Amino acid sequence: MSSKPIPEHQYATLPNGYRIHYLDEGKGPVVVFLHGSGHGASGYSNFKGNYPALIAAGYRVIVPDMIGFGYSDKPDDVEYPLSFFIECMKQLLDVIGVDRYTLVGNSLGGAVALGFALAHPGNVERLVLMAPGGLNDLPDYLAMPGMAMMFSLFNSGEPVTEARMKEFFRKAFVVDPDCVTDELVRERFEIMKLQNPQVMRTMKVPNLSARLGEITCPALTLWGLNENMMPDSGIMRLAKGLKNGRMVLVPNCGHWVMIEHRELFNRMVLDFLRNG
């Protein structure tokens, strides 16, 4: 049995010199999963309940760990603006050799997907967004209760334990506490030990709301109505801003719709991929 907290797959060295870890499985149209930020985040932990359903339905899935996270490089001598995440993801997909794909992103990954579609519209066939970042200014996010919980946990000066992390995830990210399993917490806790603080300290995500009208590809957004991390104002900004978008509001759901309502999420994403 592997001692790794999450499975290790393959690596690509980018033109910018950084090494990115990613999973690449299945055959068919390409779907790229972009995970959120936070302590111990990784592509596998975010999407292990989702990408197998797409493989089974005839899609090729690419699930990277974004720069600064998971098993990917974590440089501590650079800053982490949104443009850096986009640059690394574009270089990764170029190195892999794919040029048309659907981007699926939650939270930070959703902001990366939006920014990627703005920077490289010719490559993006569709967007699937789950409570993405990049729709508000920083004070709006800092006012959210989940953000306050995150800062109190990680900036308190007290050691972060698995028990404290589990309590935070249950209060900040979900409605149904049973979704936050001991296995998920252990994965995140062990991967967190690999992180350095630079990525969370220097991450900067601009407000992309004014540019949403430039995105013309079909988009599906899922947003939990019990969201504690992202301001509700983002719902209407996306609903009105994306010309070819549809919005699904999910009751009894927090920030992790793909985990908390896995079957609904997988079903809706497959329908969107097949029928547009």
TrEMBL record:
Residue ranges of coiled coil: none
Gene3D superfamilies: alpha/beta hydrolase (3.40.50.1820)
Gene Ontology molecular-function annotations: hydrolase activity
Domain of life: Bacteria
Keywords, alphabetical: Hydrolase
Domain (AB hydrolase-1) ranges: 29-261
PANTHER family according to UniProt: ALPHA/BETA-HYDROLASES SUPERFAMILY PROTEIN, LIPASE-RELATED
Full protein name: Alpha/beta hydrolase
Organism of origin: Sinimarinibacterium thermocellulolyticum
